[in-house]
Amino acid sequence: MTAQPHDFLPGGAPDPAKSLRAIRAALVVRQDREAFDAGLRAVLDEVRVNLDLGVLNDFVHRWWISACDSARDPEGRRRMHARAEQVLAGDCPRAAHGSVMGQAGSAASMSSMPAQFGSAARRRL
């Protein structure tokens, strides 16, 4: 077994740089880009008021994880958002016991999870 650099997956795209521009460019799903833009505005407002860059660093890290997920599995991100919209709209039947929704307990449990975290990101947290 050979070691691979952290930011490279064989056959896949490398992880985006940990910069605002690279992160936003890697977000292929409209809902992710809209949430990123709204979150960035709020974080920059908070930085201006509190003069604390820690919140910006946290924001960049959280969204970098989502950007990595988006780069590795864009279709998975699209499916995640489509499923979330169905659940929030009440348009899908209650999930079977062994499914993710069954384990979560309810749609309300899922809606409290940050939308920017996809499947690959949750595995890394």
Would you write up a description of this structure?
- The protein is an all-alpha fold and 125 residues long.
- It has two domains: 15-72, no CATH class; 75-113, no CATH class.
- The protein is built from seven helices and no strands.
- The protein has helices at residues 20-26, 30-50, 54-72, 74-89, 100-104, 107-111, 119-124.
- Helix 3 (54-72) crosses helix 4.
- The longest helix is centred in the N-terminal third of the chain and has 21 residues, at 30-50.
- It is flat.
- 18% of the residues are buried.
- Mean pLDDT is 77; it is low at 1-9 and 101-125.
Features:
single chain, disordered N terminus, 125 residues, 2 domains, mainly alpha
